[in-house]
């Protein structure tokens, strides 16, 4: 059981933590993640018209008369608002009320006129009419007057619903509510038909996979309001189980038709009523009309089909773009007060010297006949332009009257009557104060509501429409519409991902850590690794959310990982201990004995960091190894590599070298660290020569084994690999690059994963030289000038070109390492002497002599492919008076200028180097 702990614990952790999908924990983490996003851009064109404490105090007892909203609509219309949206459910008709203003001012006037007319008629009848018809004529007059008085009295009772209904129509772009449910009152046939024909979305397509809630019942605003509004939208917005309001639907279904959310409706109208495509994870609005052009708007949906609400962060609801309803309604009151004031001035003769149009007549015409004509169903020869023209004329003539020379004329007419003059001035000043207040208030409000979506909602302390968000514990719910409107207009959305993605991440993290824990025996290191993975996972999930605005469930992977690494660490602490013998055996496979001894003797030395060391770097690679992978299956390829790498690595470590790493068939090693040695170059070259010798022996061994039956102690996969190699005439050929110099060597990586390795430009050069073997067709070993300088005469080398390697500016001399001098024949030594002479001729520019020399060398040793290379190079280019360029695809390009670091005294001598080759091979 202990053997599989690293698998069992992650499995149990993930299973248990997967139950977190049934909690609100991830939603709360998503709330925190949202705080890291840039603030939602609040558009000036979205304004809350708040029924706040100031409105309740100024207007009166809540709920308000619907005439208040009617007057507010008229004001907003005049000030150029884009839309009026009522987050107020007008579900019942209001009671008729006595028109106090009418009863107090107009009704007595009508009654007085009617009784005066009655008195005049009776007098006439008594004096002029004939006796036989008096009774009949009196009855007729009485009936006429009685009907007129009844008619006048009828106007003393007003219906506030009619007033709001008319002004909903007058505003043109007004929106009221729908509330979907299952237990709602039945609708009459007319209303049902109106919902279908006028309020449902027409240009919409909904995929079968889309999650659109469907309801069997609906409770709309009363029909008077519903029929006179532009459209209606639903206000259903349910809080999550923890009480937080985080999401809402933009589309709902009722009786087979689709309806928009309350704010979605005016936004659709604003965007040109685009075609709507509802899919599983998004809503697409096709060809929307934005200020900067026409384009599609894509609204990402959460997994339940809702839009996640992104509230303006660090901003209270009361800091939103808003205006109290009182400020809107007050303009209407000021306007009426201005009209009454003008009427008072007329009745008191103030217009005696006024020859222009009477301002109050413009007002009466606009608010009376023209307004009524615009909202009537009868066709009338008036337009909104007429209405605005009359209202503008009202303000213009009023301004001219109050600030013109009328007052001066009046005062001149009562010259000498100081009391009357004072009264005239006081009365005109009062009128001007009302007018100035009206104009200033109107202009201030216009700056807020012009071209704006005005959302009517409650936030007064005496109201009850409050909810809970991540930013406010008592949040006025109408603010949801404000947030959604700003999201739609700024195209700023967040969404989530399927729950199973977080489970998959949890599986990867937990099982990944489980496998890592097998390699990490130290309890402290396990805790560090677990903590790092835990922190990294959270940071990566957060970064992913910040970049994509897609929340991936964080609770399941992070909590399950925490449980996993704590449980595994505790169990390992109890059941395992350090074993020096095991450490020695494990590290001895890739490190020299000195390094292993240092780790065992001084574990504290195993720390991050490096030091500058003079040493030699070695890079090896098998020529055309990719061809092996085409012939061998995975198991055979691994067996062959283990056979090869074991032999070669042992030779490196026998020369006190350290195997840094393996990269496929390549070996990366270093000689001269961590145990410093003066003869690192000689040791590295000795290892390289021994490796090439071992390569020859390995190829012979492969042929020998493949020719017979499989040895008992050999793996079948390795034997099969040998057979396939021989059948396909494949042999092992190793290319080696060596470079010496100052490099950084030390333990590098992280506290949890580190390796004794090397780095630096000199390391990179060794890597380049390994590949350059291919360009020069060497016997397999290329060394740098620095390595050559550190060698004694015990090694045989031959000079090649001075070259510029890719990414290395300084020209360097390349040398091919041939072998040990002690093992060379006289013929070989003579051959190399002739080689050096040929190279001097070539670099001195004596190309014909050099060509003859290289041909002579090649004729002596037809296996010398380096000689063949120089014959081809000279014949193809230098003998013809040209040099290779990048366009020739020859692997090198020739710079005809002398190297910058050449000794100036060599110019004109046999030592002069005419130019430098630039290697094109990377």
TrEMBL record:
Q: Which GO terms describe its biological process?
A: cAMP biosynthetic process; intracellular signal transduction
Q: Which GO terms describe its molecular function?
A: adenylate cyclase activity
A Pfam family for this UniProt protein? CHASE2
Transmembrane stretches, start-end: 7-25, 497-515, 527-548, 554-574
Domain (Guanylate cyclase): give its ranges.
616-770
Name the CDD domains on file.
Answer: CHD
Q: Which SMART domains does the record cross-reference, listed alphabetically?
A: CHASE2, CYCc
For the keyword Lipid biosynthesis, the answer is no
Query: Superkingdom of this entry's organism?
Result: Bacteria
Q: Which UniProt keywords apply?
A: Membrane, Transmembrane, Transmembrane helix
Which InterPro entries does this entry report, sorted A to Z? A/G_cyclase, Adenylyl/Guanylyl_Cyclase_3/4, CHASE2, Nucleotide_cyclase
Could you confirm whether the keyword Transmembrane helix appears in this record?
Answer: yes
What is the protein name for this chain? Adenylate cyclase
User: What organism is the protein native to?
Assistant: Treponema bryantii
